[in-house]
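Project channel, design review

CF: Before we commit to the Shewanella frigidimarina constructs, I'd like one complete example in the thread so the newer folks can see what an input/output pair looks like. Taking Fmu (Sun) domain protein.
RD: sounds good, go ahead.
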Amino acid sequence: MSHNIPAMSNASTSDETHAQEIAATTPAQKRALSYSTTIETLFNQVMSTNMPADRIIGQYFREHKKHGSKDRRVIRESLFGLFRWWGWLNQLNSSQKHTTWFQQLSTCAMLEQHEWNDVATAWNDFASWPQTRPDQVELINNASLNDKLTAFMTVSGIDTCQLTQLLPQWFWQLCPIDDVDQYAVVNAMSSRPPIWARAQTLSTEKVIKSLGQAGIEAKANSYFSDAINLGHKSINLNEVNVYKQGYLEIQDLASQVIGQICQPNNHDKWWDACSGAGGKTLQLYSLMLQQGSALTGSIIASDIRTKPLEELRKRAKRAGFDNISVAPWKGDVLPVDANAFDGVLVDAPCSCTGTWRRNPDMRWLDDASAVTDKPMLQLAILRRSAVAVKSGGKLVYATCSLSPSENEQIVKDFLSETAEFELEPVTHPFTGQLCDMLTIWPQQANSDGMFVAKMRRK
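CF: and here is what came back for Fmu (Sun) domain protein:
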């Protein structure tokens, strides 16, 4: 995959070069210089390897235990902030390599409205601004995206910046969005969604109470009775009792829509054809349990990757979900029986453009092929999986993509090939609107983006 924007072409990459070019005299400046070197190394590693930023930073923190919680926060949030605003920040250009990098860091701190003012001020000092410094620009608390655009143009002196530059050009070509909705989409993509979770086998009220006793602020959600908003702070789940006991699972609110659309009955037999680590498998089972009467249904989970299936086994065991089994998908042969299931969920591999709020680095690592390479595979998986649906059963197709070519077009192409299935209208859980196929946009309920269509075998 080719980068849409070059990785740090104007930035120095070595500690030695920085040490020669920058005179850090105060403790704050020394800390700021140390942070900048670490962040730059991680940034360049992401851009040069095409590895996800969360994986690279996770590996870094495992290898460098010296960092305390504040250090980790400055490094993590600055790194992800750079990717979030990179469509603007990459336009900054100074005659000196290291100066550009500090301009990018300090401008990012301004746009993100970070709290570490001493560090940001030191970055400003190192940046040698020819015009207005970021710390001289007034931004109100939680300033609007338009205000941030104005602030960036004031600081950079670049008056040609546009909101749409915060997402790559190919996104707008492959995910066409009405002009009136573009601001809302970019605005959502320029902010972090909260951590969403789901209560299972214990009431939402009790889970929230237990989380509160552990010092974790959690809120119920008006859309789904088991959905929980955990806010934005990092949480070590391995220290949280309700998680260790299987009463809590992390799952984005948009992802939770899929299970709600599936509406499994507690006597149903379901197949999750592309289960991954099983977030939706567990949700389906939890929804079955919520119906009160004895559960006689079951779920089979499949994936071509064995490692996620192992993770699913652990999660199911932790939750005490006995009627979940695993059937690895090897080759073209169906790993389950044909005409055997009341419901089949196909959460197909996709470009993941709907998850860009959580993974802002991916918008600069991927190119258009992330979308254009997928439709043939998606249609093939849907076609094969449909064979497992019995007469009168449900077939649910989902992706975390925002591109019609991976979503509506796949469903239309599939239905044009067969007269055995028909679309079943679904209600948008966040707007109440009845629609043939459903796209969840990130701005609608402060979540990721997601697509789902529900079909039934005649």
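RD: helpful, thanks. The longest strand covers residues 389-399.
CF: The radius of gyration is 24 Å.
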